[in-house]
Amino acid sequence: MNTFTALIKRELLDGKNGYIRVPAILGALSVFLVIVSTIGFGATIEFDGVFDSHPEIRNFGEAIDMAANSDKGEHELPAAITLSYWVMGGISWVALPFVVFFSLLSALYEERRDRSILFWKSMPVADWQEVLAKLITPVVVAPLVFLGVAVAAQIVIALFLSLVVLFQGGPVLEMWPLGLMFGTWSLFIVHYIMSTLWALPLLAWVLFVSSYASRLPFMWAVLPPAVVAAVEAILFETTNFLEWFGTHMGGWQVRYGNPHVDIDGPSDFLNLVFGETWEALSYTLANGQFWLGLVIAGGFVYGAIEMRKRAI
């Protein structure tokens, strides 16, 4: 087996609670809540006069049938269903930032704290491989696991709602807008890659802190940026560091696009998201701050490798 692949597998097994069990539990909870809300409370199976202007609509199947045959149904219904699947199966995404942050924070700290680094250093594995594995697992592999769980949850929810629509005489095929479903899954990957590359200097900083902090790594990760921001504000009365920090945390996404676009329905929203993703890619590749951030991230990763070489 390839050495680096084995290191990634080891990291996954060591952090299986955060990388595997947390998304699996939250994904199962998403499915459970959809089933309970549908069967237990009847809000989806029987509408019981919810649509007063359309008394002929008595259940979910008839609502889907009416939407499919409406003037905008061909365009709006697939988008609405796709977005609904993301909302109904999206609970697990809440945990992802915490899993990434605390995994990086403990990656190199824990092996020094419990002295297991002595054992791992006796293995024929280079320090740079160990550090990169500890960076790539939470930053790249874990989100793919979360996406896999989210996709599985969406498919299970689609199967369940298809059964509901089938028994109520509705159009089952309308519950499977496969083109949009695959498109949004791919879109997530593209957008996550861009967001991760923008945030990489911050993520690499957390990993670097994990490589040298002897105690309280959380405080070491949070306090220095806070002190830098406070000193700049007091001495220079500027907020350049905070603006730089905010940009890499996600603020880069408000620097492009048209904020005055009219959104008249789910399809307009998806079209906007798809279009702005490619515009964001162009903006990212042409942005000097983005490339400088990657250089800074490389410096922090190099520092983490050097610190691990000197760790005993």
TrEMBL record:
The chain crosses the membrane at residues 20-45, 85-109, 144-167, 187-209, 216-236, 288-305. The keyword Transmembrane helix applies. Coiled coil: none annotated. Keywords: Membrane, Transmembrane, Transmembrane helix. The keyword Calcium does not apply. It comes from the Bacteria. This is ABC-2 type transport system permease protein.
